[in-house]
């Protein structure tokens, strides 16, 4: 699996989990402050689309994941 696919899968998972923890109607609701984490992940995805800088991609490359075209 390439770095790009891992980053997208990780970001999508973090968004879904933090939404589940932050939305009051969710069965796993904990506190609404989890929505700040959702915003952070979304902002990181947006800025990496324009700058090409992604901290997770750097970590994954150092761990030996196969780099793709985007990062």
Radius of gyration over all CA atoms, rounded: 14 Å
Arithmetic mean pLDDT? 93
Oligomer: single chain
Count of beta strands: 0
**Would you identify the regions where 5 or more consecutive residues have pLDDT less than 50?**
none
Structural class of the secondary structure composition? mainly alpha
Q: Counting H and I runs of at least 4 residues, what is the number of helices?
A: 3
Shape: elongated
Major sheet: size, sense and barrel closure? none
Following the backbone from N to C, one meets helices and strands in this order, namely HHH
Fraction in beta strands: under 5%
Roughly what percent helix? 55-70%
Q: How far apart are the termini?
A: 14 Å
Explain how this protein is built:
This protein has a domain at 1-6 and 36-71. The relative contact order is 0.23. It starts with a helix and ends in a 9-residue tail after the last helix. The chain has helices spanning 3-22, 34-51, 55-62. It has three helices and no strands. The longest helix is centred in the N-terminal third of the chain and has 20 residues, at 3-22. With 71 residues, it is mainly alpha-helical. The mean pLDDT is 93.
Keywords:
mainly alpha; 3 helices; 65% helix; elongated
List the helices and strands and how they pair.
Elements: H1 3-22, H2 34-51, H3 55-62
Helix pairs in contact: 1-2, 1-3
In short:
With 71 residues, this protein is mostly helical. The protein has three helices and no strands.
